[in-house]
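Renewal narrative, Specific Aim 1. Our central claim is that a sequence can be written position by position from structural information alone. The example that follows is taken directly from our test logs and has not been curated for this report. It begins with the structure tokens describing the chain, in the order in which they were read.
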């Protein structure tokens, strides 16, 4: 087996008898292929405490001259010059746990990137984004709101969009983003 990318971290807990959530974001540039993502966690003080998880993942062949990354809902976004595992494109991007926004949040910030081939002119391209009710995309529901943002003519462009939450009632929604 070939290893395409890996990372190793050591976690230190202040209270050894407590349960703590782990939230980590990793990005690896992968060629189009089938992959197995493997996570292995070992308690350094008791090696019998071990867990392993595997999940298959397909990186498809890009058949368009432009594309979008996954959407990352954020609990917090701010400028950052220090760096770290939550820093990308000069921004501190703290993921929103469980993609759940409670009533105290007035807006939802979402980070993603647009990509284009060097031969593609993106000077006339726009991002369209909006919110629709329910979890299933592609249905003919009318968007609760929809906005546009002009793309810059860059090979990779970091984008943060802000969605107002104050006018949305509690429920299940999905965000759709398209390049036009």
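The sequence written for that structure reads:
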């Amino acid at each position: 087996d070939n290893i395409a990318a890996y990372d190793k971290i050591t976690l230190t807990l202040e209270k050894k008898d407590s349960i703590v959530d782990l939230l980590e974001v990793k990005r690896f540039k992968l060629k189009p292929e089938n992959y197995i993502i493997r996570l292995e966690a070992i308690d350094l003080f008791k090696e019998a405490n071990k867990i392993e998880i595997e999940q298959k993942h397909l990186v498809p062949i890009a058949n368009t001259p432009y594309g979008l990354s996954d959407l990352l809902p954020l609990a917090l976004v701010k400028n950052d010059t220090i760096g770290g595992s939550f820093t990308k494109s000069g921004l501190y991007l703290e993921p929103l746990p469980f993609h759940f926004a409670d009533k105290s949040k007035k807006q939802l910030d979402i980070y993603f990137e647009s990509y284009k081939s060097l031969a593609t002119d993106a000077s006339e391209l726009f991002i369209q984004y909006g919110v629709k009710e329910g979890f299933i995309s592609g249905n003919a529901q009318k968007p609760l709101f929809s906005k546009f943002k002009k793309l810059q003519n860059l090979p990779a462009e970091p984008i943060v969009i802000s969605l107002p939450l104050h006018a949305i009632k509690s429920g299940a929604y999905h965000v759709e983003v398209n390049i036009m």
